[in-house]
Amino acid sequence: MGLDSLGAVALIFDLEDELGVTLPDSAFSAGTFDTVATLWAAVDGESNRQPSAS
Fold this sequence. Notes:
This protein has 54 residues and is an all-alpha fold. It has helices spanning 5-19, 36-49.
């Protein structure tokens, strides 16, 4: 995706805020940011594991 490390961290924080998920430290790997699909897989996997906020 062409992100540097600060861009990746900022993106993760934005996604966590917007989607109400918390990604584990293991999600912060280079492979997570290879493509939009790999990033979405990490986010979607966490959103399915966490209880809803309702």
